[in-house]
Design goal:
The protein is of the alpha/beta class. It is 50% helix and 14% strand. Helix 5 links the parallel strand 4 and strand 5. Helix 1 packs parallel to helix 2 and helix 5 packs parallel to helix 8. The longest helix has 16 residues.
């Protein structure tokens, strides 16, 4: 099985179709996953990919409102996201929704919970919920520097002397990191501990190894530390 970590893997649906044609020409048979964009798939390209071994797609959903998607320049909307996940369900393609909390426009825990409401409604097979991390070279980092939430100088000093345990900045204008970690834990539990989700996951379990992995994952969720993006 192969997993493609190419953020441009499906920059358009034609690229996926070309990949499938190459698989067919070579008579290859293997399972594969990729990280993709919801606005880079069509039902036709997903059908072709499924026929050629596609098992799962990790979609960068990030947030749960059209306003938030516009601010993040995702070039998509809620309707398009729903459509992509619906096609995957129809074709039995597993889905992962990559999500970020602690974004500048989330000013309270209530805002984060509303965004997670969308994730739950979307109902992917897996949800990966991370806390926004501010890295140099990004528009959000530059905006954070202007607001005094991040420092370029700290990075310059770390580059000169890269000591361990460097603390990366987060957007703490409205909520501190402790609050964001608490909201992340709550979000994971809201998503994964739904009775319907647990039942569906159990039905799809195909081996003792997979069952043990899911049980271990559940215990880890109960004691999870924050993860960033």
């Amino acid at each position: 099985e192969f997993r493609f970590y190419d953020d441009l893997f499906n920059i358009n649906h034609r690229k996926v179709m070309d990949f499938c044609e190459a698989i067919e020409r070579r008579g290859l048979k293997f399972k594969w996953d990729f990280r993709g964009r919801v606005n880079g798939v069509t039902k036709e390209s997903l059908e072709r990919a499924k026929q050629n071994g596609l098992r799962m797609i990790s979609f960068g959903v990030e947030t749960g409102t059209d306003e938030g998607l516009k601010i993040l320049k995702k070039a998509t909307n809620i309707k398009t996201i729903h459509q992509a996940f619906q096609w995957c369900r129809e074709l039995d393609i597993l889905t992962v929704a990559d999500y970020i909390i602690g974004l500048p426009f989330e000013k309270s825990p209530a805002d984060i919970r509303r965004s997670i409401d969308f994730l739950i409604d979307l109902d992917p097979d897996y949800g990966q919920i991370s806390i926004l991390t501010l890295y140099p070279g990004t528009a959000l980092f530059d905006e954070a520097v202007e607001k005094g939430l991040a420092s370029k100088e700290r990075w310059v000093e770390w580059i000169k002397n890269p000591v361990p345990n460097f603390q990366v900045d987060h957007w703490e204008e409205h909520m501190n990191l402790q609050t964001l970690v608490e909201q992340q834990k709550l979000a994971f539990r809201r998503f994964y501990f739904r009775p319907g989700y647990i039942l569906r996951s159990a039905v799809k379990t195909r081996s003792i190894y997979e069952l043990s992995s899911k049980i271990l994952g559940a215990f880890k969720l109960l004691q999870t530390n924050h993860r960033t993006a």
